[in-house]
Design brief:
CATH class of the largest domain in chain A: Alpha Beta
CATH superfamily of the largest domain in chain A: Response regulator
Oligomer: homodimer
Largest interface: A-B, 55 and 55 residues
Number of helices of chain A: 13
Number of domains of chain A: 3
Strand content of chain A: 15-25%
Structural class of chain A: alpha/beta
Number of strands of chain A: 12
CATH topology of the largest domain in chain A: Rossmann fold
Radius of gyration of chain A: 26 Å
Distance between the termini of chain A: 77 Å
Largest sheet of chain A: 6 strands, parallel
Strand order of the largest sheet of chain A: 2-1-3-4-5-11
Order of helices and strands of chain A: HHHHEHEHEHEEHEHEHEHEHEHEE
DNA sequence: CTGAAAGCGCTTACAG
DNA sequence: CTGAAAGCGCTTACAG
């Protein structure tokens, strides 16, 4: 509870000197520096962030907006973001949109605007025009990952290319009957990933001269359970079964592997499976996948955002539309192989 | 960027009246109320939280400290806590301890103290004496879940009883050869759960006149992978195999189910499995479990903490040691049944 | 290098 | 019910 005044008194200097010594922003004589540090330590002084915020207009807090927190992808983002922000001396405040329209509105109209945050970091969030305008009006830089967003900076993989790469991997192994378990067109991810990943799959097939089979695109919800159910339908169909399944997320890939096993099918002998994400458990499942290195992506994005905040000069545009493409990587493990028909 | 001054000007009243009208803390004439509301809406005014914090000493932010965020239990806590806090008009700032000693020290010595938060909500965190003292000195109320903590309020299940209940369920079905997959004694959970759950298991067996078999307690790390590996060792041992396995977490239960299947064993015909948590995927796996209703527990705990903050009177002790026991519930699903030997 | 003082934008006793 | 003014605890031009 000790304030700067008490530290100044104990150190025998003015509050200005205390502030300067502790912030390191201006030179202070070695002697004064020492006295201040001793006094601060003795009193256990830590500057009040509200007062700091008043005086500087900075909160040293970044708002992170996510659609879910209890799904692996988002929790990995959250964990990496927190660690990186902490390193830079920033706090992370969490805004979770999953509570529906009301919660979302409250967050955008009230919380995010209340000068609580210096910037906004979003993951798989698409802004409404009004939301973006408000954020711009209050001079909040935005950086998004997990898809591009109009009017803001983003760092994102090329989802079309990622899906095409996964599909091409299966094609190159000799598969011709390739199904896809993807997302619902207008899904709660509120984002274009499902559509883009489907497009990549379609394009890859078409390039290989294969007509995409409508019945072999199954929408699910990106969870293990969703993948399991979809895969059961696909693999249990007596009228014809694919030899490979591309899943738009690794979690759906896990579900697909389990479904295959439960049907008595062997992976990859009877059916190949590939996902997208490189989930923490993918190695355990031996799942082939397309990695976007979420953790590094997040760390890179946080660094970038903080650079923007701290390098901001009056007159600079707050937000510009600009996507930095983040590289993807094919990781081949044990769930993809040549189809049985082409073996000898 | 509009300040209270501009609103006052536009509404033709003083800033005091604006503040009162918007906060609703004092009566304001209907006319003034209306003028203020209009003006605020027109200007898109939202009070600065730093200024609010300066004036009131409140931040309306709660610090949430967790050891992990990318594990289901903690992410469920985080999601529920955020939603509940938001409802009360509080922000959640995230403090993740997983980055090791340095990150932890920085959080406790610097961030949590910087008058950034009104209170601290912890999940499965054990404080050091110095940490607790600092928090008390800066008058931060603490509420913990996921285990009791000395010197602070907690809401927590009885872990010994939960483990005993799971074990008793297996015993009641007729199992005598019951193994346990638990935690490492001094685990990264930095908490007593592993030990307490083992104690509950031991006690239940002893009450049933069964001597716990040292070789049948396997430590793992609470993950699916960890559970899988442990279960493989248990179920593959040629010298003798348990008929039931109690896992200290549902995730280890999932791993155990997969291990059994991969060994060609049927669950529950050849081996029964029960966990603790009622994970979101437990229903999908058909896993019998002990539920602690994490989400409701978290919401209840947040309500409680906010009541403490807002009802605080000078002279009240900041933190008192007091545990509220949270009820548990046995949920029997498809992975537990009588042992084969006792069937006919 | 250092200090006195203004100022950041609110809230809230205190008067009226 | 309302307003003038003090005060919250810092930072930072401005002088010296």
């Amino acid at each position: 509870m000790a304030g700067i005044e008490e530290v100044a008194k104990l150190a025998g200097v003015s509050t200005a000197t205390v502030s300067r010594a502790l912030s390191g922003k201006a030179h202070v004589s070695a002697k004064a520096q020492d006295k201040v540090e001793r006094a601060a330590a003795e009193l256990g002084y830590v500057a009040s962030s509200s007062a700091y915020g008043m005086a500087t207009g900075k909160t040293r807090t970044i708002g992170v907006v996510v659609p879910f927190v209890d799904r692996w992808f988002f929790s990995a983002v959250l964990e990496s973001a927190e660690t990186k922000m902490r390193q830079h001396g920033y706090d992370l405040t969490l805004y979770n949109i999953s509570g529906g329209e009301d919660q979302r509105k409250r967050i955008f109209d009230e919380f995010l605007l209340r000068k609580r945050v210096d910037a906004v970091f979003t993951c798989a969030i698409k802004f409404g025009d009004a939301e973006l305008k408000n954020l711009n009006r209050t001079k909040k830089p935005i950086l998004g990952i997990g898809g591009t967003v109009s009017g803001a900076r983003t760092i994102s993989i090329d989802d079309v290319a990622a899906a095409a790469l996964a599909t091409d991997h299966l094609l190159a192994l000799g598969h011709k009957k390739i199904a896809m378990i993807g997302g619902h067109p207008a899904s709660e991810m509120e984002f274009q990933q499902p559509n883009m990943r489907r497009r990549g799959y379609d394009q890859a097939l078409e390039r290989a001269g294969i007509e995409p089979n409508e019945a072999w695109y199954l929408p699910a919800d990106f969870t293990i359970k969703g993948g399991y159910h979809a895969a059961k339908q696909l693999l249990g169909d007596p009228r014809g079964v694919p030899t490979a399944i591309f899943c738009a997320s690794d979690e759906m890939g896990f579900g697909t592997i389990m479904a295959a096993k439960d049907l008595g099918l062997r992976v990859p002998e009877d059916v190949s499976v590939i996902g997208i994400d490189n989930h923490d458990m993918s190695e355990f499942f031996g799942l082939s996948t397309i990695s976007q290195n979420v953790r590094e992506l997040t760390e890179h994005a946080v660094d970038r955002l903080i650079k923007i905040i701290e390098g901001f000069k009056d007159g600079d545009p707050i937000n510009i539309e600009e996507n930095e493409e983040w590289p993807i990587e094919l990781i081949v493990r044990a769930t993809t192989a040549r189809p049985a028909s082409s073996r000898r």
